[in-house]
Every structure is written in structure tokens, then in C-alpha cells.
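thread: overnight batch results

M.L. [08:02]
morning all. the overnight job finished for the chain we discussed friday. pasting input first so we're all looking at the same thing
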Amino acid sequence: MALYAELHRHLGGSVVPRVLWRYFQRNHTDLAGSFEGYEVFEDFYTRPRKTLDEYLELHTLVEKVQTDETLPYFIYRLMRGAYVFENLAYLELRYTPYLRTPDTLSQTERIDRMTQIVEIVGKSSEMIEYPIVTSQILCMHSRLPYEVNRAIVDLAAQMPQYVCAIDLAGGDAHYRDRLDEFIDLYEYARSLGLNTTGHLYETEEGCYPELLPFLMRIGHGIQIPLQFPELLPELARRGQCLEVCPTTYLKTGTLEHLHQLKVVFDRCFEAGVDIAICTDNAGLHNVRLPFEYESLLTHDIIGFEELQACQDAAFRHAFAWKHKERPASILSNILLHPEFDPVA
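M.L. [08:03]
and the structure it wrote out:
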């Protein structure tokens, strides 16, 4: 069995349509009643949007039902699907904990409740029947105040048993007016020893070279090889990895055709910049990681050698993967050398 690593999956966008629909039917008949049936809901939930901002509005549909009480329900189904249907050995889940707290509370009370959310997500992800190595990436948000985002950084540093990194999300077109603020937050995070990634260079409006030096990985980053290939040697020197999520760019209107990604992969391989292939929002897209692999292969965007290189890169850049080898290599060693000890 080939086992994979997923480095860029949002908790809010990870709920597949059927699971969310059943939850609405059982617990929120008002939301289910807005649609004539499942097929209408699935079409609404998964169809392409014209812009990234329009696409991100769908997250609010899930965020408001992912509470401290319901998160175990959603995470159990997420982990089961990831293990059974995607062969994942490693999964980083990213989300903004503040947005899983009741909006009826004060800002201070919501900040205090974030610890509980991280604990619930962490404990709910630990399943013996679906053994996947998991960790969390806490997302600062472009539409949250500085005090909340700094509290998210502090929380990440305080809970290393559950959290492996921080991120910046909320639409990269919205960073410009607060760029100094986000630079300060990333500097603070690095001073605390935190790993960093960030949604950057996803769209043509989200290109901020000022943030690049603070990132260990780049969430999406496709505009770098597309528009600014002169930056690639510096990314290679820093050892930065792009988290490329193919289906996302069609769903958000960022790209018109999947084949446009061939330039991204070709230029990154030529420059020595690693790419990890990811799903981003597997539920919103109604796709799974092996589909992303197959789609890139069948459209002749990459070949099997390049695919394996990307799969290797995913484990190499995984923030919480503690082993020297990926699972497939460990299994091969066991088959060839039964005395091999993967823990040694």
C-alpha cells in the first residue's frame, strides 16, 4: 500500500458534501430546507466560483456548525475517509480556532476558548482504528484583529503536542494594508521557534515578496513560477516548498485550465524548488488526494518520476513527521530485509 502525506487541508473545507448534508438533515433542518435535495446541495457546495473571495464564503457555512460539541463528529469522518480512501499516513489540518468559538462571547472570552478547541481537534484526531500521524496548523486570519492573531501565535507555541505551525489565511488579496502587522506576527512566531507557512502568491493580487523570508513553506505560491520565476532560485536556496492544490485554482477562478500548472511544475523542477501536491479543501471540491495525483498524470502535467518526487517532498517538508523515510520506503525495507527496524 502506498501511503501519502497531506500538508494543506483546511478543517472547514474537509467535510465531504454527503457528510455535511446528513448533519444538516439531523441537526439543522433549517439549513437542509434551503435546498430541494442532496443533488441541489452538492451542486451548490462544490461548483466553481468566480473569485477566491466568493469561494472562501463557503467556509462560513461549515465554520458555524464546527463547534466544540460537533468537531469530534466531523473529525471522525474526516479521519476515516483519509485512511480508508486516501491511504494517508500523515495529515496536517489547518484552521482558525477563533472561528470555532461562539460569536456571542466577547473577544477575550473567545480567545480563552481557543485552547479548548485545539485540544478537541487534537484528541479527536488520535484514532487507533485509523492510524494517521496528525498535527494542526493554526491560521491567523486577514480579517481578524491583531490581538486575536497574536493570541493564535501564542497558542501555537503553548501547545506543541497538537500544533506544528502557523499560517496566514483569509484571502491573500487582503494583506496589503496590514503587511507590516503580518510581518511583525511572523517575526514573533519565528522568535518562538514556530514553523511557518502562509497563503501567498495564490492569486495575482496576493504577491508579497516582503513575507517570503519568514515562511518555511508557501501555501500555493503558484504565481511565483507563473509571474515571478526570477524568485525561484532564492526559494531553492532557502529550501522552501510550495503547497500546490490543483483543483483549487479551477474552483476559485484563479486558473482557467489545469494544464496551466505545467509551467508551475516545470519551472520549479528546473530551479530545484520542491512541490507538495495537496487538496486544500477536499470536501468543497469533492475530491481526494489520489485524484489530484491521477489528474496531473492524465493531463500530462507531470510524469510518474515527478509525482514520486512530489510525494517524497511532502514527507520531507512535513512539520511533524519524525521519521527519516516515508512509509513506502519503510515497507520496502521490511519486505527486502525482514530484520529492518524502522524505529532505529
